[in-house]
Amino acid sequence: MAIVQDTVNLGVSAVGQAFRDEMGQPLDALSVAALSHRMTRSRLLHIGTMLKDGCTDIEKRLRVHRRKGWHYGP
Asked: Global pTM?
C-alpha cells in the first residue's frame, strides 16, 4: 500500500494498492484520492484495506481467466 499526502497536490491525499500477476509482477493499481482534511489516518487505513481486498479479488479473477486461455498484456 502507498500513501501520499500533500505531495503531488497541496491539500490532496491518496492511497493506492497494486495488483500483481502470477509471478508477483505489478500489472496495475487501484487508488483513491480526496481532500487531505477528509483523509484521517484511520480513514486512509480503512480505504487501504478495501483496496487490498479489491486487488486480491482482481488477482483471483485474472488467474481464472488466464486458466481459460485469456491473456493480458503484450
From this structure: 0.83
